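Postdoc handover notes: sequence design on the structure in folder B. Input tokens:
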């Protein structure tokens, strides 16, 4: 069974994340969405809220793709999370050159720790390249319309969180 791990903070999950999840589903038999706890980032949504949003969005995708998609919170090294879930493949989304430089360093470090786990990069769809959770939260905080960047359910969660 080919198991892939798509890690991130997902604070909140965006249409860009969902696009990468949909496309990664074509590469594996089981896709694990690794939700990084990462207390240093100071997420807007609690771990439980992020997991709940991701599970709701991924349930639809799992039905559409026929692929098992599971959500797995983690606080350890990414490479150790991959081992924990049996993933032989880490999926990362790229939006711009700046993403590549950071991800290139991460791949080198992960391969030094365990060269049996491969990393695959998926370029963000042109319609989603500008979407970043950080920017979505900032737009929402300033009463901007984020409906083009997130699903209606996530839009509602943002609205509720900020009211």
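Designed sequence:
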């Amino acid at each position: 069974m080919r198991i892939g791990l798509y890690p991130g903070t997902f604070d909140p999950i965006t249409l860009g994340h969902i696009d990468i999840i949909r496309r990664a589903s074509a590469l594996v038999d089981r896709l694990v969405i690794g939700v990084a706890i990462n207390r240093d980032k100071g997420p807007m949504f609690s771990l439980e809220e992020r997991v709940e949003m991701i599970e709701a969005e991924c349930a639809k995708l799992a039905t559409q793709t026929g692929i098992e998609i599971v959500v797995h919170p983690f606080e350890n090294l990414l490479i150790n999370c991959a081992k924990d879930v049996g993933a032989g493949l880490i999926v990362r989304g790229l939006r711009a050159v700046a993403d590549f430089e950071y991800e290139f360093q991460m791949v080198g470090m992960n391969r030094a720790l365990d060269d049996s786990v491969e990393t695959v990069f998926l370029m963000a769809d042109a319609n989603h390249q500008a979407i970043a959770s950080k920017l979505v939260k900032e737009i929402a905080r300033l009463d901007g319309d984020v409906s083009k960047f997130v699903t209606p359910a996530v839009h509602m969660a943002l609205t509720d969180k900020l009211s």
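Context for whoever picks this up: The helical segments are 15-24, 47-65, 78-85, 97-113, 133-141, 152-162. Don't rerun without checking with the PI first.
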